[in-house]
Amino acid sequence: MSTSRKKRTSKNTAAAAPLQKKPVTVGQIDTSALLGELRAAYARVGARKMPDELLGALQYAERHQAKITDVTAARKAALTRVLLWEHLREQTIAQVDRHQARAVDAAREAGAEWAELVRPLAVGAPSGAYNKAKRLRAADLTDSTGRPVRRTPEAVDAVLAYQAEQARAAVRRQAAEERRRHLVLRVARELLTHRAELAADEECEYWLGEAETVLADCRTPTQLVSLATYLEAAVRHIQRHEQHTGQPIPVSEAAAAAYAAARALTANDSGE
Prior knowledge:
Blueprint: H1 3-20, H2 31-43, H3 54-64, H4 71-109, H5 126-136, H6 153-193, H7 195-198, H8 202-215, H9 221-245, H10 253-270
Helix pairs in contact: 2-3, 2-4, 3-4, 4-5, 6-8, 6-9, 6-10, 8-9, 9-10
């Protein structure tokens, strides 16, 4: 490998690194419990009217911090305040970004150009408005592991592309499941049309009867699985009967075609 190629690879890796770094947050915290601890700490030194609302409680604690003269208690109270302020910052920024992003979407849907969003978004150019709008969308997004998305256009685009592919995959799965449902129902109807010919013994008759019962009201995925299972059992017992007698069941051409379709369906299900 040439030196120039090594340098170019190293540069590209360094450029991608900021997008790969996970944002650090305080995560989930029990604000009620932490506020309860603060309230108790201040109550012990005579400050007993701390507001219930987080912002008001933190401002109250700031004003009365000097009343806590015990060093250990003061340190613990101050650290709790730092944590709660960071939590409030994260929640406030996320809330503002989320609602501002929706306002931008509304403006764009109403025909606003990016140039018209330059001043409202406090940027210097239409490209800056576009990029900031992308960053704002990070507040409503998480990556494939459920973690917050970095506030960069590239990171947002990557998550949106992933979500779009997941949505397309879901549509493909739904379409495949619908095709499968129609196939199982069609094969079952055709097979049961010739039930009298194909019921080679009591076992075959039993499983064909079970399939017919489910087919009469087959609506849910669970019922469809049951129907396919009963068809597979009926086919298996017909095959066993043929193996035992050494000859195929004498049936009409239409029944033979229905039986062949059922064999193909069950063979496909079993991976044969």
